[in-house]
Amino acid sequence: MSWVNYRKEAIDQIANTQPVKADIDYKKEPLSEMYGRFVFGERALRERLPKPIYKAFLKSIRERKPLDVTMADAIANAMKDWALELGATHYTHWFQPMTGLTAEKHDSFITPTSDGHIITEFSGKMLIQGEPDASSFPSGGIRATFEARGYTAWDPTSPAFILESPNGRTLCIPTAFCSYTGEALDRKTPLLRSIEALSTQAMRILRLFNKNSAFVNTTVGPEQEYFLVDKRLFLQRPDLINAGRTLYGSKPPKGQEMSDHYFGAIRSRVLAFMADAEYKLFKLGIPVKTRHNEVAPAQFEIAPVFEAANVGCDHNMLVMETLRSTAEEHGLVCLLHEKPFKGVNGSGKHNNWSMCDSEGNNLLDPGETPQDNAQFLIFLAAVLRAVHKYGTAIRISVASAANDHRLGAHEAPPAILSVYLGDLLGEVVESIVSGKKFKGAKGGVLKVGVTTLPPLPKDASDRNRTSPFAFTGNRFEFRAVGSSQTVAPANIAINTAVAAALDEIATDFEKELDKKGSDLNSVIQKLLTKYFTEHKPIIFNGDNYSAEWAIEAGKRGLPNLRNTVDALEHFTDKEIVGIFTSNKVLSEREVYSRQEILLDNYSTTISIEAQLTASIGRTMILPAALEYQKQVADTVLSLRAAMGEDVDVSAQKSLLEVLTRNVSALKRNLKALDDIRTRADEAKGSSLEKARMYRNSVLPLMSECRAAADELEQYVDDNLWPMPKYRELLWIY
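RESULT FIELD:
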């Protein structure tokens, strides 16, 4: 069967596909009862642990104190019994290596006995520590291949959970992952360190106001965007299978121009998938709240409410995995790549970040009168200082080959970091800088002009979707994270940058307050004026997409690190290494190792895409184009043979010229791409030099190959075209 027949057969099948009905009945099992069923959280702990151990365990978590290992056996036994009752047969230390994915090695609970039977065992030692092979995970030079030992260490601040599959259930224990030398090989370890670092510095500010909080935590609520395509069409696209994005594909007649997909009615097949995914996430205790159609066709979003950053990062990894696996069950494929389709919006992950004290008070809540809320203004100043002074570290946290396709386009914030405060806070800051009286702009009531509508409360400021770091009421929304990325690096960078800023601010306050005759109010007035004046250049409430802003940002001295290579080059800058090492988030060796891993990942990604571009171009697109070129040439010859040399074949010759020009260009560029990619693969220079070669030489040739092929797609007989087109992938599902 030819490729085109596969295409047409798939489309016919999709037309008759009915939504998959999952086994969900909230009447029989109310949401309030089933929510968190597969989580070994406080409810399970309270029910299964002796009261003294339960209280001691919770106290150690809430007060950030080391866990008494004597409790581990009791917790492990309770966890095992709970998991077995729910049908689990194995357990795994679930961790997040530097691959950007999760990892797990399953062990069964069984231990054979001498009489040929088994007992089930799970000790405190098994709970606390595991020993997976570390040799094959990225280490950036920290570990050689022959140095295989690595350790997973139980993270008691993130609850254990059960993952179910059609063939069984597994107890998953969130863990950190480190090398034999104690260096971090994962995302969780530096995230936990960064939370502690921020807590230490934030507590210094709170003590100025006589607050006795036990700690400060960071919170996160990552909004997740994704695409869905039918699996039957997906399997006919080698580029989607192996690269997660289309390396070829011309713009369809209809994309997102009509804005008719955004917030539109959700198709029944997609809604069935969403409901099924949400059901599984609810059982895992993940508080997903929002679902809707996104801007691009076949694009959607799922969003949770806020959680502690460590748990929120774990949950986002589970959200991504659940979306993938559930889509398969519904005959769909979930695409998490930042730019699966050229010419339509890509997918991001808005990282809603804030801070709260141990009593649950949001430190970024301005209250009714932010101009009088000194504590809030100090924390606001710290965030402005962090983004202004250490913004490069935050920019690096979202750098990847995939995200390069999205950042800076008119769908995502640019690579220039700036902060949007809105009118109200902007006026507060301006009044402090200028010393003029704050006029007190407020939201009021929105007048719609329809008498039957109730009065609508109006926010104090509008929303700026073009800003990479926007204040949205009581939190900052960092909009530059890519959809396939774990949110841990972004939160590590933000936490560390804010911790460094808080350290500097707290030190300034302590010095000023030590001076004779000083008082807190006067010091606050003096230092806030200083900070807001110094960091005013980072505030921008306008259109971040505009060319004028790029020019203005340059005048303000804001860096514009347009791509991953430009960004990663600065990872080992003295100032960036300094904030990670001084706050004990990453050692100098760990910083350098991460730079090495990310550069290698960038180069490897482009190398794979270049090989795919060449393979698909040679074996699928060129044969189809050559066949059609032959058909057109044969038509010219047949016409002349039948009607004489004077017959008008100008239309056929014009078409033949277009085909010949693009076939020649594609063949020429494919050869050049193979040559330069091979040279880049075999280059002996540093990782940075190699990455530059892929960026400067390989990527442009991939674009040249695509340009020729995409023009051919517009002319080659549709019955010969070997892959599903955008008009099918984006609209038929």
